[in-house]
Amino acid sequence: MTTSNLAVAERDTFTPTNEIDPRELRNTLGLFATGVTVVTAPGLDGKPVGITANSFSSLSLDPPLVLWSLALKSSNVGLFKEGNPFAINILGAHHQELALQFARPMPDKFQDVEFETNTHGVPLLKGAQGHLECTVSFTQELGDHLLIVGRVDAIASEPCDPLLFYRGTFARLLSE
Ligand SMILES: Cc1cc2nc3c(=O)[nH]c(=O)nc-3n(C[C@H](O)[C@H](O)[C@H](O)COP(=O)(O)O)c2cc1C
């Protein structure tokens, strides 16, 4: 899609409508069970940034691309510009408290959180099931969110029971 086509699609598709009840929309979207990630990035003031996000999805295998979206009201929107580094930390079932910690505005979200920092200054959370170290390759404001597409530069995984999010609450896989 060219930029001008995208602009037209945006105008047509994202015109506010009162035909859809927002609560019903949330409830219906919540039926789609997801995993839970914390997106991390180096902050502008040297303080690391972490945001709990379940909008994460794979986009392409070749080249390796992933996507997620960030609410435009977030104070961290300015960090996700083309070329900037970030990481997706895929959480395990034992990470529910961590997911809540990174979902609340706090002066220091990394308090008591164990992490390493990669060569680009991106925090990688210890004990996460997987890390995808990325570079922002494309962004687009759509509706009330910023769509962020990242190129995956490095990966690591240590699978365990996943943390899930379903119908507005955390969930776990039932194992036999
Ligand atoms: C399970 C879960 C998933 C979330 N997914 C997203 C998401 O995909 N995008 C987003 O912008 N906020 C999401 N949030 C809300 C953010 O984590 C929350 O607003 C956070 O405080 C944003 O951090 P910031 O304001 O420091 O940028 C999610 C929250 C939870 C609990």
UniProtKB/TrEMBL annotation:
Any matching Pfam family: Flavin_Reduct
Keywords from the named record: Monooxygenase, Oxidoreductase
Listed EC numbers: 1.14.13.-
SMART domains registered for this protein in UniProt: Flavin_Reduct
An example molecular function term from Gene Ontology annotations: FMN binding
Top enzyme class: oxidoreductase
Annotated ranges, domain Flavin reductase like: 29-172
Region (Disordered): 1-20
Origin superkingdom: Bacteria
Family, similarity comment: Belongs to the non-flavoprotein flavin reductase family.
Protein name: Nitrilotriacetate monooxygenase component B
Organism: Marinobacterium lacunae
